[in-house]
Amino acid sequence: MPASVTVDDEKKLLFTANHGFFDHVVKAVETADGKWTEKFEYDDSTVVQYPLEEDGSIGEAQDVFVLTGCGSDPNDSPQGGGHAQASPHAHIVVVDPSGKFMVVCEKAGERIYVFRIGGSKLEIASVYQCPAGTGPRHCAFDKKGRLFMTCEFSSELWSFDFDATSGVLRFIDKQSTLSGFKGRNEPATLQIHPNGRFVYMNNRGEDTIVWFSISPDGHLKKAGQVSFSKSEDPAGATRCMTLSPSGAFLLVPDRPADVIRSYAVDANNGSLKALTEVPIPNPVFILFVEL
């Protein structure tokens, strides 16, 4: 189940992060002392590298990296019947601005994998281990090469410095994405304004878009938020938003309301002003294309 796809145009490579299903089978296993126990087996989560041909077609996979590690098995997560962290789940793959590395967030083992790219094989450059209960989900680089990440389980936004020589992440700051909300919440995507001064993310559960100002040294400060349609379950909530290439507008596919909402973005303070909405049944993802 591909969760994320990205392309390195210069190297003509395509990468996918494959999430893996929460579904599992239970097998009876005999132990060394002749007793019997249960063993859960899960779908694999993988990172795959493909070459892009001259005509734009996708070639045969060059390398597959099977992720390992997990949290509690099974745990008490509200996702997947409590099995959300029982096996690896890669959720995003992005290439850093230098084009030397590719980053994958894996929320079960709570790790950020950094791969060195350019050859026919995926080579691990570094692994950042997050604390239990965070759930790294979505990330993006700014133009300075800093990495920003949402945490699905702890409802936090993190910032990192990134060494484009070694591929090592250095933690800078983290802030809660919530404003007093106590129910189940799962942050989803994030977007960085082209001017590098603001980062936007959306909460599923609180059902808000929150923006933070970014200090020159990468620290975060909550600057504002807007609410959109409430969802009965974070799984069916709004999970995407997209800034226009200029940063002047933000479009939000509001799934529960069956509309796409547009906002004007104030580049000075990051604030959002509602403009209009267009009826679209169950909108999920939206992308700007420059022609």
Task: Describe the model.
The chain has 291 residues and is mainly beta. It has a domain at 2-20 and 36-176: Methylamine Dehydrogenase, Chain H, CATH 2.130.10. The protein contains no helices and 22 strands. It has strands spanning 2-8, 13-18, 24-30, 36-42, 46-51, 63-66, 90-95, 101-106, 111-116, 123-129, 136-141, 147-151, 156-162, 169-176, 186-192, 198-204, 208-214, 220-227, 242-243, 249-254, 259-265, 272-279. The radius of gyration is 20 Å and the shape is globular.
Keywords:
mainly beta, four-stranded antiparallel sheet, 0% helix, globular, 291 residues, 48% strand
Secondary structure blueprint with pairings:
Layout: E1 2-8, E2 13-18, E3 24-30, E4 36-42, E5 46-51, E6 63-66, E7 90-95, E8 101-106, E9 111-116, E10 123-129, E11 136-141, E12 147-151, E13 156-162, E14 169-176, E15 186-192, E16 198-204, E17 208-214, E18 220-227, E19 242-243, E20 249-254, E21 259-265, E22 272-279
Antiparallel strand pairs: 1-2, 2-5, 3-4, 5-6, 7-8, 8-9, 9-10, 11-12, 12-13, 13-14, 15-16, 16-17, 17-18, 19-20, 20-21, 21-22
Q: Can you tell me the CATH superfamily of the domain at 2-20 and 36-176?
A: YVTN repeat-like/Quinoprotein amine dehydrogenase
From the 3D structure, determine the CATH topology of the domain at 2-20 and 36-176.
Methylamine Dehydrogenase, Chain H
Order of helices and strands: EEEEEEEEEEEEEEEEEEEEEE
- Our count of helices gives 0
Mind summarizing the main beta sheet? 4 strands, antiparallel
CATH first level of the domain at 2-20 and 36-176: Mainly Beta
Mean pLDDT: 93
Portion in strands? over 45%
The strands making up the biggest β-sheet line up spatially as 1-2-5-6
How many beta-strand segments?
22
Overall spatial form: globular
